[in-house]
Write a structure and sequence with these properties.
Belongs to the asp23 family. This protein is α+β, with helices and mostly antiparallel strands and 131 residues long. It has 4 helices and 6 strands; from the N terminus they run ββαβαββαβα.
Length: 131
């Protein structure tokens, strides 16, 4: 069964599933400049198959305990970016977004950089430069 964070309110109960937290974290990581893909690549696919986790959305894994949430994010960074700075921004943005939208306390955001993406230059653009 899917882990859910539950809040007792005056008019009833609110439950937030792990999958919702995964979606929020994935979108927050994607917003950071220098992040090319969240959860893309050979290693992400292999990790998904080996861990067989239900609560993964595009390379995000969430573990919620009674007190806090731990988030693992697997991503690719654009070539030329300072990887440690991109990872730090991802951590901050994911923590801020998840806490603001869900009310959960995020204890850890672990960033796993699995690839560096080199953008291809269009050959048509190169031909114009050579002329």
């Amino acid at each position: 069964m899917e882990q859910q964070d539950m809040y007792q309110l005056e008019d009833g109960v609110v439950r937030i599933s792990d999958e919702v937290v995964c979606v929020i974290a994935s979108m927050a990581a994607s917003e950071v400049e220098g992040v090319e893909y969240v959860g893309q690549g050979v290693v992400a696919g292999l990790t998904d198959k080996l861990t067989n986790k239900k609560h993964q959305v595009k390379g995000v894994r969430v573990s919620i305990s009674e007190e806090s949430a731990q988030i693992d994010i697997f991503l690719s960074v654009a070539y030329g970016q300072k990887i440690h700075e991109v990872a730090e921004q991802v951590q901050k943005n994911v923590k801020r977004s998840v806490e603001a939208m869900t009310g959960l306390i995020v204890s850890q955001v672990n960033v796993y950089v699995q690839n560096v993406v080199v953008k291809k230059v269009e050959t048509q653009s190169l031909e114009k430069i050579e002329e």
